[in-house]
Every structure is written in structure tokens, then in C-alpha cells.
Design a protein that fits this description.
Blueprint lengths: L7 E5 L3 H12 L3 E6 L3 H11 L2 E3 L11 E4 L3 H8 L4 E8 L13 E9 L15 E5 L2 H12 L5 E3 L2 H31 L8 H11 L4
Parallel strand pairs: 1-2, 1-4, 2-3, 4-5, 5-6, 7-8
Antiparallel strand pairs: 6-7
């Protein structure tokens, strides 16, 4: 298992997490070898952006990469890991609620690489992304900490219980707040008010959150 310089990575998935992590990893100097997706058009589009090959059949997935990033939904992790047999590589998933051992037996080394951020592939901006890692052995954990450190200034080790608690906190910080903004915008429309007048206040409030820490 190589120590981190530039890693050869296969990305499995074509959604928000796969796209943003792919951009981040490529920007950090890692070599994205291939993108796998069951939707051939989506896999090809992301592969074109990341300047790599694409695949939509397991039989043509590159088996020479250092790391395979399983960036799919929580439900799909268990299904897809059954398709993989990577005795000489590292396989990681990006899910908050999936236990580390869900990948046991699918690869020689396995772990978790969870981005604690709301990710949108349609955005032109790459956000700051705290990354939570876990692994089946100490060498893999060090490898993932180094990989995470190449794209993030905030890296922490977290088991599934800690990830779930942080995910719940993130729902309160992000989803609930966005819902309140939506309700307030609708109320302003009904009252004949311009919601945009509140945007400077919202930005200032968000900035002040950083003063709490």
C-alpha cells in the first residue's frame, strides 16, 4: 500500500459527492484513473471533466488503482461492494451511516472517507470540506488521513456513531436553516416584500457563527 504522493484513484459514482471529491482530488494532484457509473452518459461526462477513462460495466473497471472511492448512496454501498474484489487495493465509502465493516472482505484494505459538507456538483465553487476518516487498520488510517489532508484543512477520525451524531448536527445547521429561509422567502412574497433585502443580514449572521468557536 503506497504512502501518499500522488494516488491513482477510481471513482465509483457520478453524483454530487463523486463529482466534488473528484474535482478536489484532481486539483490536489492525484491521478483519477477512471470513473465508474451505471449510467454510461453520466460516467462519460464526469470522466471527460476529470480527464480520465469511464466505465459502466464491472468487467472493464481498472484494477490497478491504489484507491477506489465508493461515492454512492448509503443503500447502494452494500450492493456495490459485492461486485468488487480488490485484494491489493484500498476501498473506501463516503457514507455517514454505513459501518466501516460493511466493506470488510471486499478489498485488502478498507475505510471511510466522509465529507461533512453539503455538496452540489452544479456549483462553480469548491467548498471547504471537513473530512472524517476511519479504517480497518492503522496503515490505511494513516493513508486516508494523508489523502484527506491533501484536500482539506480539517481532518478527524470518526467511527460510525460519531459520524451519525455529526450528520444529525449538520441537518440542524444546514437543512433546517435552509427550510426557514424558504419559509421566510414565501412569507415575503405574500407580503409584497423583497426577500433580497434580508440577504446582507443572513450573510452577516452566518459570518458571526465563526466567532462562537
Amino acid at each position: 500500500m503506497p504512502h501518499l504522493c500522488s494516488m491513482r484513484i477510481v471513482i465509483i459514482g457520478t453524483g454530487n459527492t463523486a463529482t466534488i471529491l473528484g474535482r478536489k482530488l484532481k486539483g490536489a494532484g492525484h491521478h483519477i484513473v477512471q470513473v465508474f457509473g451505471r449510467n454510461a452518459a453520466a460516467a462519460s461526462a464526469l470522466a471527460y471533466e476529470l480527464e480520465c477513462a469511464s466505465a459502466n460495466y464491472w468487467s472493464i473497471v481498472d484494477r490497478t488503482a491504489d484507491l477506489y472511492l465508493l461515492a454512492v448512496s448509503d443503500v447502494a454501498v452494500e450492493e456495490l461492494r459485492k461486485e468488487l474484489n480488490l485484494p491489493d487495493s484500498t476501498l473506501v465509502h463516503t457514507a455517514a451511516s454505513v459501518p466501516l465493516d460493511a466493506l470488510k472482505g471486499a478489498a485488502g484494505h478498507y475505510g471511510v472517507f466522509y465529507p461533512l459538507q453539503s455538496l452540489r456538483k452544479g456549483s462553480d465553487r469548491l467548498p471547504e470540506i471537513p473530512v472524517l476518516v476511519d479504517a480497518g487498520d492503522s496503515a490505511t488510517l494513516q493513508q486516508l488521513e494523508e489523502l484527506a489532508g491533501s484536500i482539506s484543512g480539517q481532518v478527524a477520525t470518526a467511527d460510525v456513531a460519531a459520524r451519525l451524531r455529526l450528520h444529525l448536527a449538520a441537518v440542524f445547521c444546514n437543512n433546517f436553516v435552509n427550510h426557514i429561509y424558504t419559509l421566510m422567502e414565501e412569507w415575503c412574497v405574500r407580503q409584497g416584500l423583497d426577500f433580497r433585502l434580508l440577504l446582507p443580514l443572513i450573510r452577516e449572521t452566518a459570518e458571526r457563527v465563526q466567532e462562537l468557536t
